Task: inverse folding
C-alpha cells in the first residue's frame, strides 16, 4: 500500500524547493532551524550527512505524520571545507582557490517518517573540475552572479557552468542541492512511488 501522508521539505532553500517541484508531487515546506556549525575534525561528507539528518528529525518532531525530507550540501577542496562565502571578497577568494582544481560536493539527504520515526539517509558526491580562471573571469562572474549563500561560490543552474571543465556524478541534480534520483529511490523504501503522486501535464488520452 502506498504511503498516504504528506511530504514535507525541511528547508527554506529556493533551489531545493524548485528541484522538488520538478517531480510534480504535492509537498509542504517547514524550516528546520538547527545549528549548522561544523564539529571539530568533521569532514565535509560527514557534515552534509549529519545536517541532513538533523534537519529532517527537527521538522519531523513537529508533525504527527508525513515523510520529512532533509538535505544539506557541503564542498571540499583538497581537504578544506568550503563555507558559504557571504561576501564578494570571500567568493572571489574561493574561486581563486578552486581554479584548475577538483572540488567534491557532498549532498546529504535524509527521509524521516514522522509517525514511526523510521529514518533513511545517504550522502551523494559530485566531482567538479574547475577550468583555469583568470582574475578577470572571477571578478566578472561574481559581479554577474554573486552566489554568496552557495558552497563553492557558484550556481550550477546559472552562469556557474561557465566555470567548469566537467562534472561527474551518478545523480546530477545533487550539485544543485537535492539528489532527485536518490530521493525517489529512498521514497520507494517508504512505499511512496513518485509516479503515483505526480500531476499529469495534460488529461490522459481517452482513446
Result:
Amino acid at each position: 500500500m502506498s504511503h498516504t501522508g504528506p511530504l514535507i521539505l525541511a528547508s527554506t532553500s529556493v533551489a531545493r524547493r524548485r528541484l522538488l517541484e520538478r517531480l510534480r508531487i504535492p509537498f509542504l515546506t517547514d524550516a528546520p532551524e538547527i545549528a549548522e556549525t561544523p564539529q571539530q575534525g568533521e569532514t565535509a561528507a560527514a557534515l552534509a550527512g549529519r545536517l541532513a539528518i538533523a534537519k529532517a528529525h527537527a521538522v519531523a518532531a513537529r508533525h504527527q505524520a508525513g515523510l520529512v525530507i532533509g538535505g544539506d550540501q557541503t564542498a571540499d577542496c583538497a581537504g578544506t571545507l568550503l563555507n558559504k562565502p557571504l561576501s564578494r571578497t570571500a567568493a572571489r577568494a574561493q574561486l581563486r582557490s578552486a581554479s584548475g582544481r577538483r572540488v567534491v560536493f557532498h549532498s546529504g539527504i535524509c527521509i524521516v517518517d514522522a509517525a514511526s520515526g523510521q529514518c533513511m539517509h545517504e550522502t551523494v558526491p559530485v566531482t567538479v573540475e574547475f577550468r583555469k580562471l583568470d582574475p578577470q573571469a572571477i571578478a566578472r562572474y561574481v559581479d554577474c552572479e554573486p552566489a554568496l549563500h552557495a558552497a563553492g561560490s557558484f550556481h550550477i543552474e546559472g552562469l556557474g557552468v561557465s566555470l567548469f571543465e566537467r562534472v561527474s556524478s551518478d545523480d546530477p541534480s545533487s550539485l544543485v542541492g537535492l539528489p532527485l534520483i536518490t530521493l525517489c529511490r529512498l521514497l520507494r523504501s517508504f512505499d511512496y512511488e513518485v509516479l503515483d503522486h505526480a500531476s499529469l501535464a495534460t488529461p490522459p488520452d481517452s482513446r
In short: The domain at 7-197 is CATH 3.90.950.10 (Maf protein). Helices lie at 14-21, 44-60, 88-98, 135-144, 180-189, 194-197. The beta strands are 7-10, 28-29, 67-77, 80-82, 102-113, 119-130, 164-168. The CA atoms of residues 106 and 125 lie 5 Å apart.
